[in-house]
Amino acid sequence: MKFRKMLLVASALAGMAVPAIAQEKFDIGYDIYFSGNSWSVQLAKEFEAEAEKHKDTVEVAYTESELKADKQVSNIEDMITKGVDAIILTPISPTAVIPVLKKAEAKGIKVVLLASSIKSDDYDALVTVDDVDFGKAGAEWLAEKLGGKGKIIALNGISGISASDDRWTGAKEIFDAHPDIEVISVVDAGWDYAKAKVAVSNLLAANPEIDGVWSQGGSMTLGAIDAFEAAQRPLVPMTGEDNNGYLKRWAALEADGFTSVAPSKPTWLGSEALLVAIDLLEGKTVEKNKIYDVPMITADNLGEFKRDDLSDSFWANTRLSDEQVRATFQD
What we know:
Blueprint: H1 3-14, E1 26-32, H2 38-53, E2 58-64, H3 69-82, E3 86-89, H4 98-106, E4 110-114, E5 125-129, H5 131-145, E6 150-156, H6 162-176, E7 181-188, H7 193-206, E8 212-215, H8 218-230, E9 238-239, H9 244-253, E10 260-263, H10 269-281, E11 289-292, E12 296-297, H11 302-305, H12 322-328
Parallel strand pairs: 1-2, 1-3, 3-4, 4-5, 5-11, 6-7, 6-8, 9-10
Antiparallel strand pairs: 10-12
């Protein structure tokens, strides 16, 4: 047991305030699950910015898993071996990490899940938004825009990742409740612009009628827009996300009648995960499932979130300063 922990426990038992003396920091392991898109990059930057604010309290050891479940398991094994006090991770697989997280908990290591869940309760806290509600929110808007009927396509992230699966679960529930809405194709586009553009281009070539696009990612929606325009097809209602490049494009197309809505999974969840970990290590009571409501950007508040002075790669719901955003995204 580290000196800092012993001091906190002893002081609590004695009913005394912790004396203002040098204390050993909490060691926290943070696994960057992916750096392949701007959302995951900003999520990690939110964590790093919060860690800098608490540099007198925490020492962070970083690992990267590159969206590989086996590598994430290995990284967590290494953190356990090093004897960290807490582990913060975004699970790549909802099942693969369960055995290693059981090991961590058996050694008294606090486990905080960030933005993605697992199929067990072997963790101390989950910090996220409700991805099922995320999917429902966009689907409800699209169903209303279409008057409850029409042919649509759906663009998912990556099957097997809980955020992607849960969003589609929520959306499908809404579409299933509208028998006159036909989902003609569901594709995994990896939250990626290029993959989405290719997928939608192929679907447009094969389907003379597509009345709407449900997309669970802003970059994918941008790809869909460009595919429609390249095919010289009229734009249809599409759901997006709070990516600044998408918000700019949406605003620019409003004069042409384009309509959209943008549910958000805030990148500030990265900041919040560290605050929760610190609370756990300091012995405070923490809600096990800290699930936030899904923020929504609509035509009515689009102007409040769109930032023409910041990078297209920036995500609107953030705790980062403008200077930190500019340092992160140079485009």
